[in-house]
Amino acid sequence: MNVIVAGSGIAGLTAALHAADAGHRVTLVTDDALGGGCTPLAQGGVAGVYGPGDSPAVHAADTLTAGGGLADAAAVDVLVSEGSARIAELIARGVAFDRGADGMLLLGREAAHSHARIVHAGGDATGVAISRALVAQVEAADIEVVEHASLVDLIVADGVVRGIRMLREALTDMYADAVILATGGAGRLYAHTTNPRGARGGGIAAAIRAGVAVADLEFMQFHPTVLGAGAPFLISEAVRGEGAALVDEHGRRFTFDSHPDGELAPRDVVARAVARQAAAQGSPVRLDATMIGAARLAERFPTIDRVTRERGLDWSREPIPVTPAAHYLMGGVVTDIDGRTSLPGLFAVGEVARTGVHGANRLASNSLLEGAVFGARAAAALEPDPSSTPTSAPPTFRSRIVPVSDAENGTNRDLNGGVFSRAALQQLMWDRVGLLRTHEGLAEALETIRSWRATAVAPALRSGVSRSAHEDADLLLVAEATASAALARTESVGAHHVDHEPALIGA
Which of these, 294, 360, 295, 281, lies nearest to 328 by C-alpha position? Predict the structure, then answer.
């Protein structure tokens, strides 16, 4: 089979390697350089190594609890039962997870985990270690790589996916027998996010346009501890797992007011507590890691230690300011436990997918695990369509050279008379479809987004427009779907919290 994998995070890289190992002809297309995206930014680890008193069943129970009752038990069982094998595979592919003097893997604990079961690499550089190892494997394999190519649309004929339309120097069609989406999430919908630029929901938008089922887009997880000085920089939850405390302006540990587990409560609970306390006191809350000590902080969290010091902060001596930011999308393209979507020939893995393992709220360190587990499963499920011959005699397509703009926040004059800009959309989503929501705010956001989309000329996206315009169209489409889903879910659950008070986390 000819297989296209769109995306080069842990899910895409794993899927591409497994597909190539199975004898498929694989082309990996990535929006960034190979190995870009969210994976190399991941400070947290990979859950799934079980010590005394722990087991896959206990891990499953923690995952289901964090998911607010909405996680799919069968998908969770797959995640936890296959996790150890995928971690062993990562080690075999060259990921050097941290070990103690006895040679045993060091296991950490993060919020809502009942046991220490998380492996890290380089302290807080797990994602970098995984990305480098898998990229090296891809480069050594018989896999064609196309870099800096944005997914524009899925090519569908006779109810089957036939390939992708991508934008590089030109709009180009690429045909295949199967497509695996691994394009990541949609954190760039929001004004404040830990996500890189490529996380704009492009895979989800392409799926929606192709009529593929999506779900749970209302469940955007906001990380509670992003450095409140300078550009957004995530302070890993593992810091709190090591004993750091969230404190108010008087040094009081306020999170216990919201949950008996305090700083180690589920992320949505901690993030809302942080937002409310910051609003109440009119200043950011602080993360106090001084009790951990300078030597341990530098050893366990070398990246965070370096960045905080570069920004003039000594977190070994004084608490540092932190604030919530959009971090991880639990919803996405609906799949079964093998990554199949509602469109024959199309698979989705990683953050772009809604496998059901996260429910309403992701358990920490389950995301890298999900990418590895379901990336492998999707590759194993590839089967040729007997009626499909798209690669034997593909229809001709004339590539159109188009201007490529990297401007992220320019005004799109084709939208609503010039009032739309990406920055305006991101701020609207932050204020109205963010961490704390109201029915009225969601309705207002949806009306505004629809007015912006109504004046966008969708056909123009195929007739010579900039990369920025393509990205804006994706963001608007996913924003509308997200606001619609949030408005439809009237009860608060997990990361979707409908408040009866005005929003408290404006810019």
Answer: 360
- Reading phi first (left if > 0) and then psi (alpha if -120 to 50, else beta), residue 232 is in beta
Residue 48: per-residue pLDDT: 96
What is the tens place of the pLDDT at every residue in 263-322? 988 888 999 999 999 999 999 999 999 999 999 999 999 999 999 999 999 999 999 999
What is the model's pTM? 0.90
Give the CA diameter of the chain. 71
- Which stretches does DSSP call E strand in 57-149? 118-119, 143-146
Between CA 361 and CA 339 the distance in angstroms is 20
Q: How far is CA 90 from the centre of its chain?
A: 20
Cβ neighbour number for residue 184 with a 10 Å cutoff:
34
Whole-Å CA distances, 48 to 13, 65, 79, 88, 262: 20, 17, 9, 10, 24
123 φ/ψ angles, rounded to the nearest 5 degrees: 70, -90
* Cα gap 17→141, rounded to integer Å: 8
Distances in Å between the alpha carbon of 226 and those of 63, 290, 300, 322, 469? 23, 17, 18, 5, 29
At residue 455, the pLDDT reads 78
* 300 has catalytic annotation: no
**Residue 209 burial (CB count, 10 A):** 17
- What does the alpha-carbon distance between residue 427 and residue 267 come to, in Å, rounded to a whole number? 22
| pLDDT confidence of residue 385 | 53
- Set 109, 165, 267, 276: catalytic member: 267
363 secondary structure, DSSP code? P
Q: How many CB atoms lie within 10 A of CB 409?
A: 12
Integer Cα distance of 470 and 492 in angstroms: 33
Of 225, 223, 255, which is closest to residue 315 (Cα–Cα)? 225
Cβ atoms of 172 and 165 closer than 8 Å: yes
* Per-residue pLDDT, 427: 95
* pLDDT of res. 465: 60
Residues with pLDDT less than 50, the chain = 388-408, 410-418, 457-463, 503-507
- Dist CA 345 CA 350 (whole Å): 17
**What span, in angstroms and rounded, lies between the C-alpha atoms of 253 and 450?**
42
Strand ranges, E, within 336-422: 346-348, 353-354, 400-401
Query: pLDDT (tens digit, 9 = 90+) per residue, 173-218?
Result: 999 999 999 999 999 999 999 999 889 999 999 999 999 999 999 9
- C-alpha–C-alpha distance, residues 414 and 59, integer Å: 49
